[in-house]
Amino acid sequence: MSHLREIMQRLNAKAPSPATPPAQLEGHLRAYERQLQDCSDSMLHYEWVWLEEHLQGLDLCASKPEMRAAAGGAAHVAVLRQESERFISLLHAEMERRELQPARHRAAVVPTEHAWELTNPAIRQAWGIDVS
Predict the structure, then answer these.
(1) Ramachandran angles phi, psi of 67, nearest 5°
(2) Which residues contact 12 (CB under 8 A, 6 or more apart)?
(3) How far apart are the C-alpha atoms of 63 and 9, rounded to whole Å?
(4) Over the stretch 24-34, which tens digit does the pLDDT of each residue have?
(5) 39-48 core/surface letters (b: 16 or more CB in 10 A; e: else)
(6) Helix H segments across the chain?
(7) pLDDT, tens digit, 9 for 90 and up, residues 37-76
């Protein structure tokens, strides 16, 4: 149940409104692409797993009426799904540019933190992010 709570918190905290103007969405995409370019290879691997889990959470949310309603309805969840699919396309392009392959990693992912937001030192170390 705590996993569902995390999904709902993440959706409510980071969700653009269903009426996000196209220019604003494009701004989100450009900012995300810049963030990816600044990421280390380890950070890109973390972000890939983060996005895959995020998409799974959105799919779960879409399939559960209570979650869908709490997230703003089916249209809002669909907008979030489309935006996330565009983010993962940008991530795949960056990984391809660096000749990296997405791969599952057994370390934890913080549902509310992208790779560049990751604050937990143990998780950063497990992913090889900024390890000295």
Answers:
(1) -65, -45
(2) 70, 71
(3) 17
(4) 778 889 999 99
(5) beebbbbbbb
(6) 2-14, 22-38, 41-63, 65-70, 74-97, 121-127
(7) 999 999 999 999 999 999 999 999 999 999 889 888 898 8
37, 94 in Cβ contact below 8 A? yes
Q: How far is CA 115 from the centre of its chain?
A: 9
Backbone angles phi, psi at 4, to 5 degrees: -65, -40
Opening angle at CA 112, ends 106 and 81, nearest 5: 90
Phi, psi of 89 (to 5 degrees): -65, -40
Query: Which amino acid is it at 8?
Result: M
- The closest alpha carbon to 71, from 2, 6, 22, belongs to 6
Asked whether the beta carbons of 44 and 36 are under 8 A apart, the reply is yes
Structural contact between residues 76 and 131, judged by C-beta atoms closer than 8 angstroms? no
